Amino acid sequence: CIRVTYTHPDHPATPAVAEVRGNVLDRICICVRAHLVSGADGKSGTTVTEADLKKIFDRVNELWSQACVHFEFSGKTDIQPDRLDSDIRTESALFGMLLLKGDPNCLDIFFVRRVDIPSADSDLLGFAFRGAEGAAVDDENPDLRGETTAHEIGHNFNLEDRGATGETGFLMSHTISGFNDKLDFLGEIDKVRDFLRRGNKGRQQVYV
Known about the structure:
Elements: E1 3-5, E2 20-21, E3 24-26, E4 28-37, H1 50-64, E5 69-79, E6 87-88, H2 93-100, E7 107-111, E8 114-115, E9 126-128, E10 134-137, H3 145-156, H4 185-197, E11 206-207
Parallel strand pairs: 4-5, 4-7, 6-8, 7-10
Antiparallel strand pairs: 1-3, 2-3, 4-11, 9-10
């Protein structure tokens, strides 16, 4: 993979990030696969198209390039779960069912019509478990699918939402916007790269 110069002036190489050598980060490459989910009726599913997928993952790679993490798109799958209408309605059963339909060698992103989590305190654009191997992204705001996908991948990489609701500017801010594009170097980029390099995520799909 390509080596990218890293210019943060206050951050020395640390043993925790094994691939840091001087001021150079090796690029971590991860296989990602898209799943376009339709409802049980075969119709009420995501409106995402193949052209949309290119835009989404181009944006994801643009955002995650700050951490020198690159996603290699392996294609799409159309799936129609037996028990899913147009929504993901629970935090466990239905999302777990989707994960079982994923590609074991890739990070799986499921595009659905709507994410509906009863316990959430606001409307959600996406959903993921921390440390899990996939995420769900909905159609509520098509212009922010790239940012939403990148944000949910952050949860897959064991990142939490940043503390204050309404904090903007960071990829992991609680509220998604088109201006949420920064990863904090010391608190987030190091954590993600250490998480990936320790093999906690993507044993087959991560390589340097």
